[in-house]
Amino acid sequence: MSKGNLTRRGVLKTGAVAGAGLALPTYLSAAGHEGFTNAPTGSTVTLGFNVPQSGPYADEGADELRAYELAVEHLNGEGDGGMLNTFSSKALQGNGILGKKVEYVTGDTQTKSDAARASAKSMIEKDGAVMITGGSSSGVAVAVQALCQEAGVIFMAGLTHSNDTTGKDKRANGFRHFFNSYMSGAALAPVLAANYGTDRKAYHLTADYNWGYTTEEAIKSSTEAMGWETVAAVKTPLTQTDFSSYIAPVLQSGADTLVLNHYGGNMVNSLTNAVQFGLRDKQVNGKDFQIIVPLYSRLMAKGAGANVKGIFGSTNWHWSLQDEGSKAFVQSFGTKYGFPPSQAAHTCYVQALLYADAVERAGSFAPCAVVEALEGFEFDGMGNGKTLYRADDHQCFKDVLVVKGKENPSSEFDLLEIVEVTPVDQVTYAPDHPQFAGGALGSCNNGA
Amino acid sequence: MDAIILQILNGLDKGSAYALIALGLTLIFGTLGVVNFAHGALFMIGAFCAVTLSRLLSLSHEVAIPGQVDFLGNPATRDVPYVFDIFGEALGSSIIDWAVPLSILFAIPIMILVGVIMERGLIKHFYKRPHADQILVTFGLAIVLQEIIKYYYGANPIPTPAPEAFTGSFDFGALIGFEPNTIIYPYWRLVYFAFAAIIIGAVFAFLQFTTFGMVVRAGMADRETVGLLGINIDKRFTIMFGLAAAVAGLAGVMYTPINSPNYHMGMDFLVLSFVVVVVGGMGSLPGAVLAGFLLGILESFASMREVIDIIPGINQVIIYLVAIVILLTRPRGLMGRKGVMED
Questions:
Q1: B343 domain residue, yes or no
Q2: How close is the nearest chain B Cα to the Cα of A304, in Å?
Q3: pLDDT per residue over A157-167, tens digit each?
Q4: Hey, how many other C-beta atoms are within 10 angstroms of the C-beta on A276?
Q5: How far apart are CA A61 and CA A134, in angstroms?
Q6: DSSP letter at A241?
Q7: Once rounded to an integer, what is the mean pLDDT over residues A223-249?
Q8: Distance (Å) from the C-alpha of residue A268 to the closest C-alpha of chain B?
Q9: Separation of alpha carbons B220 and B134, rounded Å
């Protein structure tokens, strides 16, 4: 019949594809009523909690979600108020945000950048979320942060430790409370020097992705600065489960220290394998062999069982801290859920409160007003001591905890002990530090 | 030289796991003609049998510790396992300590049951369907099984240590005249290798020296004729499926002290095990075992720093590269028989 290239089906298909393409950018202006994306008009405001609900970090995501639910409760004046009672800013009254009751929707990042962007996009477009927060991976944080910048909503990052989130990939609409690779290196190095000396040969195993690279660089430069030598740095595939073939050559290299730039399942497996191979019982160069895990997560350390005992690392927060803010949060979380919160839960809870407080102080949900309220904001009473949200890169600057796997844990939660609280001055760096170079905040985007 | 010996040793236990999974895959493919993508999930379920038994053995009741408080300021309690009450603390703690080896006994009936249910309940409906359908349905089943495990056990790895007596490592290098500390090898990995060798030997002996095995082998060669002789070959093949499931399950049980099990561990092994089956030759049991060890050792060598420095990324692709080369030179795989998957 039709000999030409034009067929009815072809036309329909092309039309559908073109239509979909044209419809795509409309979300940028879809729900703008007051000059910014998703301006809340009724008596409620919707926040979007984008956390891993499936995939390997699902347990961490579940803890983040618990923290957000608790934060929403406290913002709406329910429960015991948690850290609202200890937070130095008193703008929040427990009557929602700007008098609007806080509601929330959740998305599943699956710890995949594309899935995380899709769920964030859906919460912004379909559910009218005015702010997106959460996540347990730097890849996801960077991807969602860029999306929020385009869409004109605020992004309050969850657990993300790569330098790039507030380094080369920073965005004006994005904020990070969690610490980063540089800070881990700066906090760990003096403790390592004090415990293991300044004459060490380190062997790095590094997860082959963005976070691994920035962590390796940070630990390398801060340990080399105090006299350590880096014998080798080997990249391991993210999908690796058995690390024996990477661990076994470590002793032959003449190294006396192994640095595991691994997180999550990678960390559990590489640490378990290293201990199985007896590295910690060995003596090299006349010194006891040591293992270091730069970023500790209590939730995941649990997977490594007794293998974490005595191993140094750093963490953003730990439930055993005795300041008023931490105690209030642990009490509140523990009473509701029956176990202490993780550092992921803590950073997410704090981010939700910080956002709400900024809106309250700004008197507006407009992203640019929120950005202005958060930039250079100094606060206390949130579990990390005095903290600054630096205007130059939207990174929080606060004390960093150096921790060690506990020798005699008294419970299944009591896995880490705090060795030192490294003061904020020691982990502060210039905004143009080489490890954070490239990229620019740009200007805030109200969307609409 | 010491580095080479070390990587051969490393390859042996990785190869043991590949070989055990591939052996089960080949058994199922050879008997039932089904490409079973849920086989990795059976390995994972086996591992979770060990997790379950160690949890069952550690079931405890709370006893208050006078004078101490927990993180919320409530009176602190201590968990006392019921086995302590029954057997006393010394025997009780060694029973918990030996949970993983004990799980072998626990896992065998469970795995056979899971295998038989899987075959009778789902897979038998797909015998006459194309391989693509079988792959889709078994892959779907694998995802369902792993989500069920995740629902009950969470997404984080669960530490399941080896008995105290087998933790730590020994200096293999010093034993064979190298400098001390150059070739060290964990005890449990040696146990794993020995265990794999015994299981593989037992499966071969079973097929070779029993009447049941003889019938199964005859069925693999010519199913119709065996059926015509009045033998219920279907029933035997169902049992073989259960047996293959048990082999994968035991591989999983014993693997738990090497890497803390999580819901995803089956998938991690599945793809590689298929490559192992194809390289070894579809339907060839010795081929599966040979290719399992071969690829395990090659993978270990490819992750040596010296090798990665010369060819970056080789550690991630070596297995597939070798598969391509072998299939180009020997299209039926190392020990594949004529006529299998060639119709």
A1: no
A2: 6
A3: 999 999 999 99
A4: 27
A5: 8
A6: -
A7: 90
A8: 7
A9: 19
**Percent of chain A residues past pLDDT 70, beyond the cut:** 92
User: Average pLDDT of A421-439?
Assistant: 94
In a domain, B304, yes or no: yes
- Name the pLDDT band for B195 (thresholds 50, 70, 90): very high
- Would you call B16 an interface residue with chain A, using a CB distance cutoff of 8 Å? no
Q: List the structure tokens of A172.
A: 């004006």
Instruction: Give the model confidence (pLDDT) of A69-114 as tens digits.
Output: 999 999 999 999 999 999 999 999 999 999 999 999 999 999 899 9
**ipTM of the predicted structure?**
0.84
A 391-430: CB under 8 A from B = 410-411, 413
Q: What is the dihedral of CA A385, A388, A393, A395, to 10 degrees?
A: 20
| Cα B169 from Cα B257, distance rounded (Å) | 13
CATH of domain A182-315: 3.40.50.2300
pLDDT of residue A278: 87
pLDDT at A9: 59
Arithmetic mean of pLDDT, B125-145: 91
Nearest to B161 among A55, A282, A305 (CB): A305
- Residue A420: strand pairing partners: A402
Q: How many domains does chain B have?
A: 1
Rounded CA-CA distance A236/A131 in Å is 36
For residue B168, what is the DSSP state?
A: S
Domain of residue B144 covers 2-52+102-329
Q: Kind and range of the H or E element at A314?
A: strand A312-315
B335 within a domain of the structure (yes/no):
no
CA angle in degrees (0–180, nearest 5) for A348-A352-A354? 110
Q: Specify the pLDDT at position A413.
A: 87
pLDDT bucket at A27, cuts 50 / 70 / 90: very low
Between CA B205 and CA B208, with CA B206 as vertex, the angle to 5 degrees is 60
In a domain, residue B61? The reply is no
Superfamily of domain A32-179+319-398 in CATH is Response regulator (3.40.50.2300)
Instruction: Judge: A278–B184 Cβ closer than 8 Å, yes or no.
Output: yes
Chain-centroid distance, C-alpha B182: 29
Residue B71 near chain A (CB below 8 Å) = yes
- What CATH number did the domain enclosing B250 receive? 1.10.3470
Among A70-84, A204-218, B89-103, B168-182, the minimum mean pLDDT is found in B168-182
Q: Coil, strand or helix: which one is A234?
A: strand
Chain B partners within 8 Å of A59 (Cβ): 154-156
B167 C-beta neighbours (distance < 10 Å), count: 17
Domain with CATH 3.40.50.2300 in chain A: 32-179+319-398, 182-315
